[in-house]
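Example record for the data management plan.
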Amino acid sequence: MKKRVILMLLVTAVLLLLTGCATQTTTQPLDLSSPEAISATLQSVLVGFFLFLPKMLAAMVLFVITLYLAAWISKLIRRIMEKRRVDPGITLLVYYVSHWTIVIVGMITALRQVNFEVTTFLAGLGILGFTVGFALQDISQNVIAGLLLLIQKPFELGDLIQIDDFTGTVLSVDLRTTELRTGDGHNVLIPNAHVFTKPITNFSRQATWRIAVPIGVAYDSDLELVQRVTLQAIQTLPDVLDDPAPVIHFHTFNAYSIDFTLFFWIDSRVTNPLTARHPAIMSLQKAYAEAGIEIPYPIQTEIQFEGDGNRDA
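Corresponding structural encoding:
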């Protein structure tokens, strides 16, 4: 991929430099009225070309050196920032900015070696960029959104986030997409424009998580006993935090049960929030069985009608 990009940049540079060469050698109109005039014109063109050739080669060499220099310096900056544990998003942004800044400065310097009209070229490049940006506005939106995400930092590499229906760990943020690693091991690429305009839930910003467990007990249960047994059972788990303390809230008279919700807090750096309910439910079921607390379930009653199948009319 790197060789392909360098080859594309070199071809572009050659075309620009040949355009400059043509400008240098066609300052006067061609005279094709006679064989002598044609010969003189061709001789003038060849002389101009060979005089221009060293400048063109020097510009090409300068541009190639710029490409390697940009890659080396940007990687060096990225390595230094990673060793100093700078934020990964800022590191990536500085890497891209430094790389393309050096490439653009080197390209302009190379064009000046051949007396190329840089001002006119930049004006034309601006018009071309506006036209291409309008035609490829979706890609442009993703690039701009990627830069804004790297600056605002709503999440960092390694954070667990949710965007729409996708929940996963952030693997990378480039100029076009954000890559997530979902819990089932899939890699998801989300366009940056979509990420930037959608609500983002960052589960890694806070270390403590509140876990909710809905429970229902029978109508004849002693609710004070249920509350005491529930809190004692959940507080015996080592991963449950004492501060904030676990609480329960009775809230619904259901058809078969009195429903309540148990809330407790964990440290996500120690306990996986996705599996925190497992030990809680096991501990509660055992405690309820020992205390004689019933967790009801819907009962279906079947009614059968029996009668004579052959009744006289």
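Summary line stored alongside the record: The first strand starts at residue 160 and ends at 163.
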